[in-house]
């Protein structure tokens, strides 16, 4: 929370449905600003579904619906008058596998600013691209290779390029859905270091199955599981050090120590 105590996101009694199937039930959480919140739990418990609720990515799936409230800066993002395009600019997303466009490195980062009109000319666009690549710890590594095809980069570089692409549209929140699962250990550590650096300016929410990663990078951790109705819900949420050393729920301890899931 910031000085006045307001979290970045307030989720209140969120239910989410894929047609008749309730995937999330009564999910409530307050996500602190400029902190990293990790979502952990067994496969199929709704972590990625919940993550996508935070920028309405699930809207693209036919037959889905939500109940409850998701407040971003105290504004309900599911209000019928909400601007979904602006929401997705403010709340960017990095996916499990790098997904650069089949264009140059420069054009990948410049895509969002061009569409949204965030740069008034080529010079301003170049400054924004450089700034975003620097923030993503990729500028020096590329060494002026901005016109090379993005697909020629290593997987780790591609993922940082995707992060730079998100940063270029000046978001407030970055959602990351298992961003290191396709990467080797060295590339993973670079992404983790980058997350810690970015959390000085951005709110980050990450889904991960890597318990060591959650313990290393996050400030807060939410443990999700299926309830008796087979719907995903949060069973425990606290500071990460407490979750990993003195969890309140036995199911959390069983999961993080490998005795469950």
What can you tell me about this protein's structure?
With 261 residues, the chain is an alpha/beta fold. Helices cover 35% and strands 25% of the residues. The protein has helices at 47-53, 84-90, 105-116, 122-135, 139-142, 155-167, 185-198, 211-217, 240-245, 250-256, and strands at 9-18, 21-31, 36-40, 64-72, 75-76, 91-94, 173-177, 203-207, 220-226, 232-239. Strands 6-7-8-3-9-10 form a six-stranded mixed beta sheet, with helices on both faces. Strand 1 and strand 2 (21-31) form a beta hairpin. Helix 3 (105-116) packs across helix 4 (122-135). The longest helix has 14 residues, at 122-135. The mean pLDDT is 94.
Keywords:
six-stranded mixed β-sheet, 10 strands, 261 residues, four-stranded antiparallel β-sheet, 10 helices, alpha/beta
Low-confidence stretches: none
- What is the general shape? globular
**Strand residues, percent:** 25-35%
Count of DSSP strands = 10
The number of distinct helices, counting runs of at least 4 residues, comes to: 10
- In sequence order, what are the helices and strands, one letter per element? EEEHEEHEHHHHEHEHEEHH
Mean pLDDT: 94
How are strands sequenced across the largest beta sheet? Answer: 6-7-8-3-9-10
State the helical fraction: 25-40%
SS content category: alpha/beta
Main sheet properties: 6 strands, mixed
Q: End-to-end span in angstroms?
A: 32 Å
Radius of gyration: 19 Å
Describe the structure in brief.
By secondary structure, the chain is an alpha/beta fold. It has helices at 47-53, 84-90, 105-116, 122-135, 139-142, 155-167, 185-198, 211-217, 240-245, 250-256, and strands at 9-18, 21-31, 36-40, 64-72, 75-76, 91-94, 173-177, 203-207, 220-226, 232-239.
């Amino acid at each position: 929370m910031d000085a006045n105590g307001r979290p970045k996101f307030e989720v209140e009694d969120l239910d989410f449905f894929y047609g008749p199937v309730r995937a999330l039930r009564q999910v409530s959480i307050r996500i602190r600003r400029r902190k990293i919140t990790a979502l952990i739990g067994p496969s199929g418990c709704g972590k990625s579904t919940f993550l996508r609720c935070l920028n309405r990515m699930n809207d693209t799936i036919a037959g889905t619906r939500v109940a409850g409230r998701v407040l971003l800066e105290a504004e309900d993002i599911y209000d019928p008058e909400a601007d979904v395009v602006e929401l997705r600019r403010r709340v960017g997303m990095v996916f499990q596998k790098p997904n650069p466009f089949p264009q140059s490195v420069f054009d990948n980062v410049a895509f969002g600013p061009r569409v949204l009109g965030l740069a008034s000319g080529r010079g301003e666009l170049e400054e924004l691209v450089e700034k975003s690549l620097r923030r993503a710890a990729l500028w020096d590594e590329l060494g002026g290779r901005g016109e090379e095809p993005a697909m020629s980069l290593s997987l780790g570089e591609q993922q940082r390029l995707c992060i730079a692409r998100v940063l270029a549209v000046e978001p407030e929140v970055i959602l990351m859905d298992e961003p290191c699962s396709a990467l080797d250990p060295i590339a993973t550590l670079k992404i983790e270091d980058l997350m810690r650096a970015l959390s000085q300016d951005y709110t980050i929410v990450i889904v991960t199955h890597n318990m060591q990663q959650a313990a290393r990078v996050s400030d807060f951790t939410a443990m999700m599981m299926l309830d008796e109705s087979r719907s995903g819900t949060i069973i425990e949420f606290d500071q990460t050090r407490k979750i990993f050393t003195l969890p309140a729920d036995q199911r959390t301890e069983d999961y993080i120590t490998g005795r469950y899931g």
